[in-house]
Amino acid sequence: MARELAGTTGIICETDEFFYTQIGESTDSYDYSADRLGDAREWNLERYQTALRDRVSPIVVDRGNGLNPETLEYVVLAQQQGYGVELKEPNSPWWQELRVLLKYKRYVSSELFDHWATALAQRSRQTHRVPVETIRRWMKAWRAELTIDDILKEAS
């Protein structure tokens, strides 16, 4: 979805790219290091700020739906530079199924929730190798129907 949104003129800012391009010997290898996550986030934010200054359009920030200081910072910086901000979600069939689970997660059994977290962790083994615990945390923090106003209100 991010590549589709960026098209041929845009840029994708994704923290994970740091672990492909800034660490290790090959850009084909995802060399994640928890110790370098802060560096990765800073690197991505700098790329984003450069794209804003250079008036790149569109700028796609590949993140999850959550209320956190990082998301707020991206939104505020974009608005300060006169950019419009939209939230988009994948449109794949597997995401639509997972989205329903996340939207109604308070009614979902912990077994089904854990099943999805495990399945997503296994799926990521070929690329990002995200641990089940991290995916579970992301799933719990994910917000259905999140809006830009929700993100901005979090700062108030």
Features:
156 residues, 8 helices
Please characterize this protein's 3D structure.
- The chain is mainly α.
- The protein folds into two domains: about 1-90 and about 145-155, no CATH class; about 95-140, no CATH class.
- The protein is about 55% helix and about 5% strand.
- The chain contains eight helices and two strands, in the order αβααβααααα.
- The chain has helices at about 1-5, 15-20, 35-55, 70-80, 95-105, 110-125, 130-140, 150-155, and strands spanning about 10-15, 60.
- It has a two-stranded parallel ribbon with strand order 1-2.
- Helix 4 crosses helix 8 (about 150-155).
- The radius of gyration is 16 Å and the shape is globular.
- It starts with a helix and ends with a helix.
- The relative contact order is 0.14.
- The model has no long low-confidence stretch (mean pLDDT about 90).
Order of helices and strands: HEHHEHHHHH
C-alpha Rg (nearest Å): 16 Å
Strand portion: under 5%
Gross geometry = globular
State the total count of DSSP E strands: 2
Domain module tally? 2
Strand order across the largest sheet: 1-2
Mean pLDDT: 89
Percent of residues in helices: 40-55%
| Low-confidence region ranges | none
What is the end-to-end distance?
31 Å
Query: Given the structure, what is the number of helices?
Result: 8
SS-based structural class? Answer: mainly alpha
How many strands, which pairing sense, and closed or not: the largest β-sheet? 2 strands, parallel
